[in-house]
Design a protein that fits this description.
The complex is a heterodimer of chains A (409) and B (324). By secondary structure, chain A is mainly alpha-helical. Chain A is 69% helix and 1% strand. In chain A, helix 1 runs antiparallel to helix 2, helix 1 packs parallel to helix 3 and helix 13 runs parallel beside helix 15. Chain B has twelve helices and four strands; from the N terminus they run H-H-H-H-E-H-E-E-H-H-H-H-E-H-H-H. In chain B, the strands form two sheets. In chain B, strands 1-4 form a two-stranded antiparallel sheet. Chain B has a two-stranded antiparallel ribbon with strand order 2-3. Chain B starts with a helix and ends in a 14-residue tail after the last helix. Classes of the chains: A mainly alpha (409), B mainly alpha (324). Chains A and B meet through helix 8, helix 13 and helix 15 of A and helix 4, helix 10 and helix 12 of B.
């Protein structure tokens, strides 16, 4: 036991040290992230585990961000996408409804704050905008409500449709929202069309905190609340109803689960998380346009959920981390590296890399990453990397002592 | 009054455009509908199988152009060549996708192969992009002009039709007829219908179910490939991502006509193509410019939603299969 605790502390310290010594090295930061996963999975007392994780996320990460702001950006993105993945996890993982237009709700939330937190609203109401940045916090709620409402509006007609049709209809809905955002700059200018909206207000930082750190902590707090809500939902009455529907609609109905209402709840809950994160996202980016809300994003979030394990909360967080890091660091890192090699005129096996086609940009191949994740996971590990506990128990893979902490129920 | 004149004036042209678009959708929709008929599974990657055919075609044309012989080959031969190559390429691609990504999942819960298919679709988009970036250092590819195909001739005083639109129309008609005959009049077609009806019973009757499923993918993929080549010839401009939206609309067409139903796919394609052409040309005129052609995609998707709500079995219902 002591040894294991020492091992986790050592891993965290070592990885922290690595980042400290090589603040520009991608590998060092990946090591740091890996050590977090190691701590989470390690068989140590829960208090030690959470203390270490809190130390890493609340203290070490902001300090790292102080030396390399890009890592803080990555961490903030991870937190945003983790919350998104958790929302989609409710719809896809718990209720078993494949939603391919999830990013639409994210877009709705984003535009809520973007329109009112920037001078854009003047085009609609005449004057008096932007709202003071403090309104951001109120708009977290507004984004939640509007997105949830959109979810219900979409859900009401389409939830009677069978599973795989539902996937295509939601995909279509996602596209509809994007096309509307792209074109609603006339007859009344709501969204400013493809040019997008800027500048969007950001919540003011208290106590003179550095802005990156403040925003990171804020997003982390919201993500933590989302995780907490999800954990409570999972074992609640409604959570069990979702899983019953996922396993067998007819049986669930026979047990007295109201199908449409329960599915609507799943849609609304999933959408509401996306709405909140949309508000956060628009404040973080300061600029949004419809290009941020393509089908690609929906599939990205889906890949996160699938990778981590459908219905699994730690899985969704892990999936969000891996996919975001792959996108932001590994692919971009590869691109940079390749460009450096090209500019240096390096030769590999007698081939001068400077002759590589300019169209070959590793950073642009996120679709390939998502695709490979989806195919491989479906064929080899459909339960995901960190399967949901209930599913593990079903499949009989759960070891006598649960790896992911003690049982909550 | 002027507006009205304008509306009537462009009507025949719009009709022609819609017809060509409709045949294109019908050809693509066949791939969705055949696979759905047999496996009850949406082959999400079909849009990439379709655009792969267009890439095979453009590569051959560009290759010939590079060799300097493009102008000396008679155009019907050229067209047949790229059609055959595109069909073969896409058909084989579809078969190999089935082997690698769908067959291991055939008995899994419904969502599992669907997610795998989405993965294949995304993977192929970037894979094609990757190949083209290595091979030609290009993102967009342009079909070389074949002058004979661009020649326009006048049907009446107001309508003129480029030869390529006629090629698309008659090519599509021929293939649709051929497929219909294959499925309904041959032994192989009977086997396909039997597998669609009941796999177990079909296998007890001595039908090799796996072979028939592969064959279904081959035929559907080949139709998609032909559509891809025709798409390239007609619109002249492709990239790795340009198959996605037409694919989605063709799926809408398949659902519109009644998925699993081959004549339905043709009818759905025609209806959707015409509606889209009309929406694209008239929406802006009718709303005084407030809503323009940009909304034509919305139009197609809203239609999909409406059909699924009010008539989920589509316009022609399910003729191929009856299932509770």
């Amino acid at each position: 036991m002591i040894l294991r605790v020492a091992l986790t502390v050592g891993a965290l310290a070592l990885s922290g040290l690595a980042v400290w010594i090589f603040p520009r090295s991608i590998l060092a930061f990946l090591f740091f992230q890996g050590s977090l996963l190691f701590i989470y999975l390690a068989d140590v007392p829960r208090r030690v585990k959470w203390a270490l994780l809190a130390l890493a996320l609340l203290v070490m990460m902001p300090v790292i961000g102080y030396f390399n702001a890009y890592y803080l950006e990555v961490a903030t993105q991870v937190a945003i996408f983790a919350a998104l993945a958790l929302g989609l996890n409710i719809v896809v993982g718990l209720a078993g409804l494949l939603d391919l237009g999830y990013v639409a709700f994210f877009a709705v939330g984003s535009y809520c704050w973007a329109i009112f937190g920037s001078p854009q609203a003047n085009a609609i109401f005449g004057g008096g905008f932007p709202l003071p940045p403090v309104w951001f916090f109120a708009f977290l709620l507004v984004g939640l409500v509007v997105a949830a409402g959109t979810g219900v509006l979409l859900g009401l007609p389409v939830l009677r449709i069978r599973g795989d049709y539902l996937a295509v209809v939601t995909l279509g809905f996602g596209e509809v929202i994007r096309v509307m955002a792209n074109n609603l700059d006339k007859p009344i200018n709501f969204t400013n069309g493809p040019k997008g909206i800027t500048p969007i207000g950001r919540p003011p930082a208290p106590f003179g905190l550095p802005y990156g750190e403040y925003f990171y902590l804020l997003v982390l707090l919201i993500a933590a609340v989302v995780v907490l809500v999800n954990r409570r939902l999972e074992d609640s009455h409604i959570g069990r109803a979702w899983e019953a529907i996922r396993e067998d609609e007819l049986a669930a109905q026979a047990m007295g689960v109201p199908l449409v209402r329960t599915k609507l709840m799943a849609f609304a809950c999933g959408a509401s998380f996306a709405g909140i994160m949309g508000v956060v996202f628009s404040a973080k980016q300061v600029f949004i346009n419809p290009e941020s809300f393509t089908f690609l994003e929906s599939i990205g979030v889906l890949a996160m959920v699938i990778l981590g394990g459908m219905g699994s909360i730690p899985g969704a967080v892990l999936g969000a981390t891996v996919v975001t890091v792959l996108n932001l660091q590994v692919l971009k890192g590869l691109s940079l590296w390749l460009n450096e090699l090209k500019n240096a005129g390096t030769t590999v096996f007698g081939y001068n890399l400077a002759n590589l086609p300019t169209q070959l940009e590793p950073a642009k191949y996120e679709r390939m990453i998502f695709g490979v994740i989806l195919i491989l996971m479906m064929i080899f590990r459909p339960q995901g990397m960190l399967p949901a506990r209930r599913r593990q128990r079903e499949l009989g893979h759960l070891p006598p002592k649960a790896a992911g902490g003690t049982e909550a129920a | 009054m002027d507006d009205f004149q304008l509306l009537i004036g462009i009507l025949p042209q719009v009709f022609m455009d819609g017809l060509v678009l409709g045949f294109m959708y019908a050809l693509i929709a066949l791939g969705y509908t055949m696979v759905y008929g047999v496996l009850e599974f949406i082959n999400f990657a079909h849009s990439e199988i379709f655009i792969f055919g267009a890439f095979v075609g453009v590569e051959i044309l560009l290759g010939l152009k590079g060799a300097g012989v493009l102008a000396s080959v008679p155009w019907p031969l050229l067209l047949l060549l790229i059609l055959a190559a595109g069909m073969a390429g896409s058909g084989l691609l579809a078969v190999s996708i089935e082997r690698v990504a769908y067959r291991p999942l055939r008995n899994a819960p419904r969502l599992i192969p669907l997610i795998s298919a989405i993965g294949v679709s995304f993977f192929l988009q970037d894979f094609i992009r990757f190949l083209e970036s290595i091979w030609r250092n290009a993102f967009n590819l342009v079909y070389p002009d074949i002058d004979a195909l661009n020649h326009r001739f006048d049907l009446t005083e107001t309508i003129d039709v480029p030869v390529k639109s006629l090629v698309v129309t008659f090519g599509a008609l021929g293939m649709l007829w051929g497929l219909h005959a294959l499925v309904n009049r041959t032994k192989v077609g009977a086997a396909i219908r039997a597998v669609a009806e009941d796999q177990t019973a079909a296998s007890l009757m001595g039908i090799n179910v796996n072979r028939i499923i592969s064959l279904t993918f081959l035929i559907g993929g080949a139709m998609g490939g032909a559509a891809g080549v025709l798409f390239g010839v007609q619109y002249g401009f492709i990239n790795a991502y340009s198959g996605f939206i037409p694919g989605l609309k063709a799926f809408t067409a398949a659902v519109l006509g009644g998925i699993g139903n081959i004549p339905g796919a043709m009818a759905g394609g025609m209806v959707l193509g015409l509606l889209e052409a009309f929406a694209a040309s008239y929406m802006s005129l009718l709303t005084g410019g407030a809503f323009g052609a940009e909304y034509k995609d919305i139009f197609a998707f809203s239609m999909l939603i409406l059909i699924l709500i009010f008539r989920p079995r589509g316009l022609l219902g399910e003729v191929v299969r009856e299932r509770a």
